[in-house]
Input
Amino acid sequence: MQSSVPEAAISHWRDARLALAENDPFAKCERVEALWDLVVRGQWQPSCPGEQGDLFCGRPDKPALVHPGKLRKRGLGSLDGQRALVHAVAHIEFNAINLGLDAALRFAGMPDDFYRDWLSVAADEARHFRMLNDRLRELDTAYGDFPAHNGLWDMAEKTAHDVMVRMALVPRVLEARGLDVTPGMIRRLEQAGDERTVAVLRVILEEEERHVAIGSHWFRHLCQERNLEPDSTFDELLTGYFGGQLRGPFNFPARKRAGFSGPELERLQAMDG
Output
């Protein structure tokens, strides 16, 4: 770590590394919440942590991670289906805690607001995970009781080499899928009479829009820094990493509010055609 980083900041960034490495989901949430509380109370103004070297992402032994195609489809009209859905979203939020921490720790040389932004995202995701875990408890199940896939973290590893690629493809592609699919989940859960889960998902949907917007902001900032045209750069990255194909539905109003440009939205619309 760079010697110019103040000792107190070194300690806080060390705590952030410990939070990322923490295996227990609830201990991870507590560590993240304690770090963000320091920021909120003005006791830490996070800035570049310096080169961090290898980062370890902790996760519990369960849920078992399987290929997405092996996940059993369950209807939301059944209790088992509602449990599986809440569990799947909880798993996404758990991974998103790690993604926020990893972004803040991994990429040196960014403006101070970058580190504050991604620590704030990690704190939001920890709160979302707790909300979903409470709902799982109400449904007489727990995080780890269903299998899950690791697609979100797999993409984090594929983009670890370049902050611009990370900003383009994790918040603006994978996490933005939450903006696309959550309204449909809410409608189906309302039809099933599960208003408790609907209330949780509404909070998450509203706050995830800000997270995608943070990715959009920093992607465009980095494109400007590198003298790259953002729309064509995003299209090239979609082609390189996803074969230029994303499947709808797309929540165009939410994506527009989250910083997607007109040409980007037109590209998505063409994919969905």
Observations:
- The domain at 7-272 is CATH 1.20.1260 (Ferritin).
- The chain has one domain: 7-272.
- The chain has eleven helices and no strands.
- The mean pLDDT is 92.
